[in-house]
Amino acid sequence: MSTAVPEPKIFACKQSEALAQDIADAFGIPLGKVITSHYSDGEFQPSFEESVRGSRVFLIGSTFPNSDHLMELLLMIDAAKRASARHITAVLPYFGWARQDRKDKPRVPIAAKLVAKMLETAGATRIITMDLHADQIQGFFEKPVDHLFASTIFLPYLRSLNLENLTIASPDMGGSKRAYAYSKFLESDVVICYKQREKANVISHMELIGDVKGKNVVLVDDMVDTAGTLTTAADLMMERGALSVRAVCTHPLLSGNAYERIEKSQMLELIVSDSIPTKPSKKIRVISCAKLFADVMLSVNANKSISGKFLM
């Protein structure tokens, strides 16, 4: 006698509750119940308030700093494993610690690989994420990784602007591949910024490779942290004769005085996803990635191909 397979279940880490609710709504099932107990020293313990035995469990949590966000996801994966979940899919709209993907100087860690191993050791059987800082991070995992591209949600909006003399720009050499991919779909020119750093998050010098005079420029990057690079690039392009400068950045970390820099810059608009919660700002437009993740999760649950979700 065959036994019916339990319905999939979706649970949220605290930092991604709003996005997880939107994903669950688009998926078509209610968000699962989790409570978190806290100790006075800061230790915490998440607990599923419903059975997950035999279920495919989706755990949604972006791992932006502080490190409690990563720790919460790891604890929830471990709890699902010990509660006999059939499959445990860690959904990381933003995969944190990804900038440390190699040894760029002696005696430093490769944090991205460490995080990958921690997720697998905790019990994750699949990873779904979006716009990794470096594509090769997928190779740090021994489990399947579905690496989604935010271009799926951003390109329709950019097309709707109907910008004439459009030019796509990369704020640094490392993002040139992403910029060329956007330019291919938008049939536009490409320019690249060359920057030198004094130290992390501090730019000592920036130069522009290409012509932006009389152009409407869209800067494309995977994340915006302090917004120093973006605002410096936007102001430089306006000085070089650009008609307007916008930026598309998937993950809005927006730390330090990033909001203030954006408000004061000559950048017309910053377009981001909701992979990380943001504060309201007249210059920031948030485009939801909830439906993209829900569609992919539905395909994964039904063992269907997700290749149609990739635009680049």
TrEMBL record:
Catalytic function, reaction form: D-ribose 5-phosphate + ATP = 5-phospho-alpha-D-ribose 1-diphosphate + AMP + H(+)
Family annotation (SMART domains): Pribosyltran_N
SUPFAM superfamilies (UniProt xref): PRTase-like
EC number: 2.7.6.1
GO biological process: 5-phosphoribose 1-diphosphate biosynthetic process; purine nucleotide biosynthetic process; ribonucleoside monophosphate biosynthetic process
Gene Ontology MF annotations: ATP binding; kinase activity; magnesium ion binding; ribose phosphate diphosphokinase activity
Cofactor: Mg(2+)
Gene3D superfamilies assigned: 3.40.50.2020
Source organism superkingdom: Bacteria
UniProt function note: Involved in the biosynthesis of the central metabolite phospho-alpha-D-ribosyl-1-pyrophosphate (PRPP) via the transfer of pyrophosphoryl group from ATP to 1-hydroxyl of ribose-5-phosphate (Rib-5-P).
The name this protein goes by in its record: Ribose-phosphate pyrophosphokinase
Organism name: Aequorivita aquimaris
